[in-house]
Input
Amino acid sequence: MSHIVYSKTYTTPRRPFEKERLDNELKLIGEFGLRNKREVWRVKYTLAKIRKAARELLTLEDKDPRRLFEGNAILRRLVRIGVLDESRMKLDYVLGLKTEDFLERRLQTQVFKLGLAKSIHHARVLIRQKHIRVRKQVVNIPSFIVRLDAQKHIDIAINSAYGSGREGRVKRKRMRAGTAGAADADEDED
Output
């Protein structure tokens, strides 16, 4: 039996009907092909936690061992997932991060940007239907955060119908119907 995770992964907004925020969220959902507002809130919550940690570390002195150690850990993690540039490895730049920076790193967005999918929505469908792999691992989570080193290894899955796997159900059905139709035509000629 699996354990239940009690920590929340998102927070709902304080003001539920703030026009500006609602419009902004809708724009993000459209641009990045998200399923619902909760996906936006989840990313905002992650960003809020990172910014909070950075703000707390910035209150400490420059040479404080905790600030040096934890600050470096945050910066290295953000650079590794490709949200922060290597030239901007300072805690001040962490406070300047936006939600869009994190949404850019989702597998769904990367699949679309690489041209493996015709649209951002098509990318989501391909991922859910297990047509996409990162390195050798098939990933079917659209919100999977792609690291910089793994970005070059996003590809069509080996056993996918789009790759070198066997044809899809409809194509096999049409081929069967095609061969049966050709056999009937030969009998008619006799």
